[in-house]
């Protein structure tokens, strides 16, 4: 039996088991992402096109952070608590196949939100999107980093600990991260912290591919994401194979 | 030989610096087509042993071989040889029993999977009416049966069932034992983990009684019973609490509770005991009586109630 058919059946099992929840979550993501674009324009009086572009290109990053670092850890916490995780570990498939199938599932629920919010923002504000071909690899890299890190800490830590982290992440990503506003507005120590954490790099890479003529991402940003992605998935596979 | 477990010891760190020996030098083997019962109280170490056979835990000492290959060296192989019904309920979410069992079958057997087997299993367990009901809406018993089907739909050479009859009604329990028996006809071996001793006695070929991480006895149910005692017991229901009746001289230990009288006898005296009991009935002292061999439950309790584990 080959890896591909294992992947197919594991994906079907995981997806159908959570189908109701996933559809609901995909809808919520659409609402949140539109909410970010429109809602923040109420916070900022008379926003210029540049600020709106910041918000519009930040919303997809927020969605990916929400899915990977908030919803996913909550799901893993539940799966751990009701013994489903132990059951998965007895399946006659490679553990990385399970991770791969689950990653696909999370990717699928985040894409509608990203597409819908970008289309809505474009027609409402026309903020100056300039989508580059790098959008596909960039989106994948950001999504994989977010999902990978989410897996890493939710497998590693107790359900309670990972739930607390995900709560901090929601608040921190929305208010204290340079996703919806430029980095230089933050105090210096937070800037230093964001040079290390993946959130800033996610936002930069996303912006550079959605509005290529306005924003740039450095090689360092890509490198940062790559490291976090490897750490996250590596940690998750390590825990899955641990005895 | 399917499974060979040799001197397996597993120690878990306890509170502070203490250590708990969960499995203590366990040795046993399972032949093709055999049903092996693992009996023990809660916390006896049964599930820990099973997790080591599956390669989910590594023993601190000893060896486990599945089909001649070391589980410690190739745990992935172990997972394809064994199929498991875990002790905890597997949450099915939006999956229907049919979807869950079919997907598990495909995952285990690939192209060799035969979808007809799903229907055969559901019919054998009389659960066809729920085949297409979403998991969340199923009763605990039907969910447990679905978990059972997921383990046996495309069984490996060894099927491990951890308390498969929990939550299942008495009628379907019988169907379930029949399905397990049928599995072994194809050469599949079964490990049955349970604390439901009476049920296991009828189902298993051999048992091991486990207590505080050790095997106290191992063998066929009758071996295990005779290792404790080979006495018979007679139970009589008297017409009233105090009856002026002579208890036979060969009665070994007598026990009286209200109008219930129980005593044990040597198997050689069975016939005379029956005659005696009949005579008491004719005289109107006794309403009813029953004679039974020592059950494996008696043996289990006798073995595990000894506080010192040697």
From TrEMBL, chain A:
InterPro entries: ABC2_TM, T7SS_ABC-Transporter
Transmembrane segments: 21-44, 50-72, 105-125, 131-153, 160-179, 222-240
Topology within the bilayer: Multi-pass membrane protein
UniProt GO cellular component terms: membrane
Keywords for the protein's UniProt record, in alphabetical order: Membrane, Transmembrane, Transmembrane helix
Record carries keyword DNA-binding: no
Protein name: ABC-2 type transport system permease protein
From TrEMBL, chain B:
UniProt cross-references to Gene3D superfamilies, sorted A to Z: P-loop containing nucleotide triphosphate hydrolases
Pfam families: ABC_tran (PF00005)
GO molecular function, one term: ATP hydrolysis activity
Domain of life: Bacteria
Signal peptide start and end residues: none
InterPro entries: AAA+_ATPase, ABC_transporter-like_ATP-bd, ABC_transporter_ATP-binding, P-loop_NTPase
Keywords on record: ATP-binding, Nucleotide-binding, Transport
Domain ABC transporter, first and last residues per copy: 3-237
Keyword Metal-binding: no
PANTHER family: ABC TRANSPORTER ATP-BINDING PROTEIN, DOXORUBICIN RESISTANCE ATP-BINDING PROTEIN DRRA
UniProt name for this protein: ABC-2 type transport system ATP-binding protein
Organism whose genome encodes this protein: Tenuibacillus multivorans
